[in-house]
Amino acid sequence: MRNTNENVQIRVSGEAADIEKFLAALKAEAPPASFIQDVQAEEIDFEIFKSFTILSSDDVSDDVTEISPDIAVCHECLKDMEQPGNRYHYPFVNCTNCGPRFSIISDLPYDRAKTTMQSFVMCPDCKSEYDAVLDRRFHAQPTACARCGPWYELHAKNKPVETSADAIASSVAGCLEQGSVMLIRGLGGMHLACDAFSLEAVGKLRLVKKRDMKPFAVMFRDIESLRNYAHIDDIEMASLLSWRRPIVLLHLNHAGKKEIPESLNAGLGLIGVMLPYMPFHYLLFGQLKTNAIVLTSGNISSEPILIDNREAMEQFPDLPGGMVLHNRDIFNRTDDSVVRIIRGRERVFRRSRGYAPAPIRTSLETGGILAFGAELTNCFCVGNGQKAFLSQHIGDLRSLETIRFYEETIEKFLKLFRVKPSLLAVDLHPDYISTKTALNFPGLPVEQIQHHHAHIAACMAEHHLDETVLGVAFDGTGYGDDGHTWGSEFFLCDLNSYTRKSHFSYLPLPGGDMATEEPWRMAVSWLYKVYGSDFLNLDLPVLKEIGPEKTRLLVQMIDRNINCPLTCGAGRLFDAVASLLGLVQTASFQAEGPIRLESLVLQCCADCYGFETGEVVTFDTMLKEIIADFSARVDNSIIATKFHNTIISVIFESVKRLREQSGINKVVLSGGVFQNRYLLEGTINVLTRHHFEVYAHESVPSNDGGIALGQLAIASKRRSITCV
Ligand code: ZN
Ligand code: ZN
Ligand code: FE
């Protein structure tokens, strides 16, 4: 057997029937985290093999093998941790079925020498397992034991004070239970941790992280303890327990016996939850009395997750609880991934640990394309053959550290996946940092791609669509062909080009980017458009909270057209309604308005408000009806539900009209707004009832984290057309 950068080659000899059995077993008994794309069998000259041997890995061409994402510790390794011997309570136990992969790999083919485990020399016991064909650790590159492998250290005041894993776990448990905040080095980066049920500790964590309100992810001990707090259906449970171990967004169990502190999740009806995935997490829960700890990325908000021990000590010099560090280096930084189950499917919102860098298989020739992605929630993408390697979540390209991480990771991906860039794909927005980063590759052709076209193309590439479709792209912002801010696009499009058939009506966005953080600006702009100055007489919470002074200033900005770009972003409409209902005036985390609005939705109300569709969709009727409902003291949850139903109706009416015009029946939904569960479910339900074929994102984020895949697909298509 031989591992090459293209594939795994196995040579066997024997009776035909035995070889058939072998081929069947290859698929049937494949390890859980493995993925067999294809098995090709051919006859070779007869040869007698005396034993099973693995030949050294070889590069046979420029084609690439894939790098496995990191895998949660498996049951058998957890059992090994309970057996006396070199792995008793050893927190780096792993085998061929589990353990670190992407986070420690510096090059291909995947051998120990090309991982950050190369500095640890295997002891004779580990080496004999590594060499034994029938052993679970046969050629497990990161294999290790307490005698030869990495270890943890507890640091207090930046000095190591403890190195026994058991003693560390018990000391950490004690500190967390006393309300301390601690830093714990993980698989793809550092985490900050505290007791999830301690209001005081959560407050301290917010200070340390400089994060006001944004909900924290929580690690629960197990499914049983989680059930007391949140609803879990079978598919959510499968995601929680899968070897990828993502953070799963769950609905809180309000009827349940127990509640979590509001400060954890900003009082939303949702919580991001994960289960233990590293051996150390299990050791820790073995000592902890609390059933859940906050485990959030170890960084100052807006910076990338820390991976370096020294940097962690510098950034958090006086964490009272101390730091748990280890000495297995992290080569590729990964955050915890985030998914949500919508309409029975796992939808990835943040694609990182456990998912990246598995390629997205496309039906396009993507070789040599480097797509830079968007500016916020950035991921980039490189192509080799038909495979698109979408990077792990990079983050918002707004801090120097994140930009450095972005540039370094581009270099790493080009090297790892053997891509020599020959075509660059960027967003149409000239000021995006991602667009400007293309300047680091001078002399190469650059394909500029409209943001929402890229959203739709990302979803098309994910579903192997290469034809004309009806594309519905709803998000917050994206640079349009007319220089205005788009975000509610109804396209008739293919991978090459698009016609913008319809969009929401434009409104001035007073303050530009500032308005995304201050939803009240959008509400006032809309009120002013529909009511003129009379809106000042309306009795609305937003006007009271903002006060007449600021409101008048905003009106002046609109009148004089000072810093008032035009927008039709669907996300802004959600912001405006959230502001009108008094839910959010100043957002303390991204998309707070839309998320709060969705949190209120009821399943039992089917009513909706008035609207006018056509080339431009207008919501003036809806605004008046919302104000009327509000004045009549209709409950906010009813208003929020009717608003969502209205948007679903607008989508349905619009694509129905476009189907009549074009005969096209396939609808592709993309953009961050479709992370809204009620909206996505409702839209898919009504469209499929009317016999549309509907495509929505699953393994690629529908937010800007998926943009780079769409850019890559469009660039590939356009290149193939010019080449013909
Ligand atoms: Zn294992
Ligand atoms: Zn060993
Ligand atoms: Fe977008």
Explain the layout of strands and helices.
Elements: E1 2-4, E2 8-9, H1 16-28, E3 55-58, H2 75-80, H3 124-131, E4 152-156, E5 159-162, H4 165-177, E6 182-185, E7 190-195, H5 199-209, E8 218-220, H6 223-227, H7 234-241, E9 247-251, H8 262-265, E10 270-274, H9 279-287, E11 292-297, H10 309-315, E12 323-326, E13 338-342, E14 345-350, E15 360-361, E16 369-371, E17 381-384, E18 387-390, H11 400-416, E19 423-427, H12 433-437, E20 446-449, H13 451-462, E21 469-474, E22 488-493, E23 498-504, E24 507-508, H14 514-517, H15 519-531, H16 541-560, E25 566-567, H17 570-580, H18 592-600, E26 616-617, H19 620-631, H20 636-662, E27 666-670, H21 677-689, E28 693-695, H22 707-723
Helix pairs in contact: 4-9, 13-22, 15-16, 15-17, 17-18, 19-20, 20-21
The protein binds zinc ion (2 copies) and fe (iii) ion (FE).
What does this molecule look like?
- The chain has 724 residues and is an alpha/beta fold.
- Among the domains are: 1-61, no CATH class; 153-326, Alpha-Beta Complex (DHBP synthase); 507-695, ATPase, nucleotide binding domain (Nucleotidyltransferase, domain 5, 2-Layer Sandwich), CATH 3.30.420.
- The protein has 22 helices and 28 strands.
- The strands form five sheets. It has an eleven-stranded mixed sheet with strand order 5-4-12-6-7-11-8-10-9-13-14, sandwiched between helices.
- The radius of gyration is 27 Å and the shape is globular.
- The two termini are 41 Å apart.
- The model has no long low-confidence stretch (mean pLDDT 94).
- Residues 86, 122-123, 125-126, 144-145, 147-148 line the site of one zinc ion.
